[in-house]
Design brief:
alpha/beta, Rossmann fold, four-stranded parallel sheet, two-stranded parallel sheet, 7 helices
């Protein structure tokens, strides 16, 4: 909650209104209660960004059941529950935006339960886009490794991720936030069910250079 309070303070210092709410999104009852508390205090919700996403990539043969439950609950079940609670009001008011945060882990098969959860988030995004149209659009933002203090603690991995990214750097949290904000503007009214990949070209398919001829 302390980190959320710092964000709220920063927003208020810039002259805007902000309020922080707290809930364990791994708990269904708390997740539903969160949606109710926000609507009760601030009025009908018109924009929902599902951003929470704990990570675990232990091999399936050694993955703990608790990690399976937590990763799926927060990454996948919580967005489903929040949409159930919030989307009816969006439909009634005739406008709404839902943005789910995915990950390029959904495109590989070596990130265990996290990749599975994020792949399901894309499926959920597409299905909800059909179900909630035309009043509500549902899209996803799919970043690769994000530049963050956590990434800075893993210098070998960070350097490898940057080396594998054609644009030569990692996507920033601010860039992701700006895309989310833009997707709520009128110019994106006709986009739904789509995943915007922010990976600097990292997941583009490449033919392996085998060194067998003059062109590699």
């Amino acid at each position: 909650m302390a980190a959320a309070k710092r964000v709220v303070d920063g927003i208020r210092q810039e002259g805007h209104a902000a309020t922080a709410f707290c809930a364990d999104l791994g708990d269904a009852a708390q997740t539903r209660k969160l949606a109710a508390e926000v609507a009760e205090r601030l009025g009908p919700i018109s924009i929902l960004v599902n951003n929470a996403g704990p990570f675990a990539d232990a091999p399936f043969l050694t993955l703990r059941e608790r990690d399976w439950d937590v990763v799926l609950a927060v990454n996948l079940k919580a967005p489903f529950l929040l949409v159930q609670e919030i989307a009816p009001a969006m439909i009634r008011q005739g406008w709404g935006r839902i943005i789910n945060l995915g990950a390029t882990s959904s495109l590989v098969r070596s990130h265990s339960i996290y990749g599975l959860a994020k792949a399901a988030v894309i499926h959920l995004t597409e299905s909800l886009a059909l179900e909630l149209a035309p009043a509500v659009t549902v899209n996803a933002i799919v970043p690769s490794q994000i530049a963050s203090p956590r990434t800075d603690t893993m210098p070998v991995y960070k350097d490898a991720a940057i080396a594998g990214t054609p644009l030569g750097r990692l996507v920033t949290e601010q860039e992701i936030a700006k895309v989310a904000a833009r997707m709520c503007e009128a110019e994106f009214d006709f986009m739904t069910g789509r995943a915007i990949i922010l990976d600097g070209g990292r997941t583009l398919p490449r033919f392996p250079r085998l060194g067998l001829g003059p062109e590699g």
